[in-house]
Amino acid sequence: MDLNSFIENFAEQFDETDASEIKAETVFKELDEWSSLIALSVIAMVDEEYDITIKGDDIRNSNTVEDLFNAVKSKA
Amino acid sequence: MAFLKIQNVSIRGIAACVPPKVEENMQIDLYTPDEASQIIQSTGIERKHIAEEGVTASDLSTKAAEKLINELGWQKESIDAIAFFTQTSDYINHPSVFEIHKSLGLNEECACYDFYHGCPGWVISLSAMCSMVSGGSYKRVLLLGGDCISKRIYKSYREERPLFGDCGTATALEFDKGATEMCFDIGTRSSDGASLIRPVGGERNPYTAETCQREIDLRTGKLSPDAIGEAMDGMSVFSFGITVPPKSIKR
């Protein structure tokens, strides 16, 4: 599983936030556009792209995009 | 594996009853108009019907059942059993199905069953009641159910407020040798049950004066569940919803 493509997939869930604003170290919950609906899109994306089921706690316990990537990777 | 194949049962009709009062999701003051439109777009829910104080799921379901019985032309004496599924019973210590039995004026030879489930309440109880009818001993069964959940949700909880309205339903089942087979694929994800649990107020953690007041404050919106960390884990429920049921349907 590749971090850069995960970041790309993650960034695609946002409409107004430019993809260049989203990096491995981005604290995603601090992004203006972040909301519980985006969180749901991220869960759906991870299911779709990686066939991995993440739960609310995986999102809650992650600060950066890379944290979330690691959480997903650990379930692969 | 709980995969049921049931023969000899027909669904003769379904009726539903919603209360007249409506809450528009655009009008909820927890969201900006932009947020509200986004929620409506993602959920498809524009508005919900909300029961008046004191109106329960059994009331709405009874109304639906009366309509259904009339339209099918069923004699009440011909109903062998009724079942009721809800999460919002009329009383703490009395199965609501008995109240329905009384309101519908059914006779004492009619059996009553109560089910307590969440979202899959209709499907679970339908599978149970159809299994009973399938053998031919029960010829006619009415399955009632619904929730008046709007009183129980926490008013200032952003994740629940736009989703839940009030409704009661009735489904008529009849023994029928020519009926198409029904299939039920049933499973139980109890390990994730904590995502939806309300920990206080039952026998495990009975209300104290303090927790009871807190519940009232949560229901009226004075207190936010996010503030005290007692909220439905909506993300995990969603995650279950998009992964498990699609696989089941494929089976």
Label this structure with key terms:
heterodimer, A: mainly alpha, 4 helices, 0% strand, B: 251 residues, alpha/beta, Peroxisomal Thiolase, Chain A, domain 1, 2 domains, five-stranded mixed beta sheet, globular
Can you describe this structure?
Chain A is mainly alpha-helical. Chain A has one domain (3-14, 27-74). Chain A contains four helices and no strands. Chain B has two domains: 2-185, Thiolase/Chalcone synthase (Peroxisomal Thiolase, Chain A, domain 1, 3-Layer(aba) Sandwich), CATH 3.40.47.10; 188-250, no CATH class. Chain B has helices at residues 33-43, 57-72, 96-104, 121-134, 209-220, 225-228, 234-250, and strands spanning 2-6, 9-17, 22-24, 47-49, 81-85, 111-115, 140-148, 166-175, 182-186. In chain B, the strands form three sheets. In chain B, strands 2-8-7-5-6 form a five-stranded mixed beta sheet, with helices on both faces. A two-stranded antiparallel sheet of chain B has the order 1-9. The longest helix of chain B has 17 residues, at 234-250. The interface between A and B is medium-sized, with 15 and 16 residues.
Give the structure's gist in a few sentences.
The complex is a heterodimer of chains A (76) and B (251). Chain A is built from four helices and no strands. Chain A has 76 residues and is mainly alpha-helical.
CATH topology of the largest domain in chain B: Peroxisomal Thiolase, Chain A, domain 1
How large is the radius of gyration of chain B? 20 Å
DSSP strand count of chain B: 9
Shape of chain B: globular
Largest sheet of chain A: none
Our measurement of the CA-to-CA distance between the termini of chain A, rounded to an integer number of angstroms, reads 9 Å
Rg of chain A is 11 Å
Instruction: Spell out the helices and strands of chain A N to C.
Output: HHHH
The computed structural class of chain B is alpha/beta
Fourth CATH level, the homologous superfamily of the largest domain in chain B = Thiolase/Chalcone synthase
pLDDT < 50 runs, ≥5 residues of chain B:
none
Q: Report the span from N to C terminus of chain B.
A: 12 Å
Mean pLDDT figure of chain A: 93
Could you estimate the helical fraction of the residues of chain A in percent? 40-55%
The tally of structural domains of chain B comes to: 2
Indicate the mean pLDDT of chain B.
93
